[in-house]
C-alpha cells in the first residue's frame, strides 16, 4: 500500500492529514462499515508515519469507529453517510467558492463545463 502514501503538507499536523486519508477511504469504501481498520502498526507502516501519529489519528476518529478489545478498530455502521454529509458541507463551504470563482474568471459556460 505504500505506493498510495500521500505527500504530507508540512504546514498541517500529519495526524490530521492521516485522519483525512482514513475518512476518504471510508467514503470510497476501501474501509467498509463493519470491517476492521488496519492495526496501528500496520497503518503506521502503510503511511510511513510514527505509530504514535497513527494512534492519534485513530483517537481523533473515535466517534466514527468502535474499538473491540482483542479484535481491533472497526468502522461503525452508518458512518459513511455521516462522513459524506460532513465532507459535502465542507466542500461547499471551503472549496466550491474558489472553484466557482475560477470558472467565472475563465468564462466557462455551463454547457462547456458539463461536456468536459
Description of the molecule:
Helix content is 56%, strand content 7%. The protein is built from 5 helices and 2 strands, in the order αααββαα. It has a two-stranded antiparallel ribbon.
Query: What count of structural domains?
Result: 1
What's the CATH superfamily, by name? Winged helix-like DNA-binding domain superfamily/Winged helix DNA-binding domain
Q: Within the largest sheet, what's the order of strands?
A: 1-2
Main beta-sheet annotation: 2 strands, antiparallel
- Estimate the global geometry from the Cα principal axes: elongated
Pick out the low-confidence regions. none
By secondary-structure content and strand pairing, the structural class works out as mainly alpha
Structural Rg: 17 Å
Q: How many E-type strands? A: 2
CATH topology: Arc Repressor Mutant, subunit A
User: What CATH architecture label applies?
Assistant: Orthogonal Bundle
Q: Please give the CATH class.
A: Mainly Alpha
Question: Would you spell out the secondary-structure blueprint of this structure?
Answer:
Elements: H1 14-27, H2 40-47, H3 51-60, E1 65-68, E2 72-75, H4 79-105, H5 110-115
Antiparallel strand pairs: 1-2
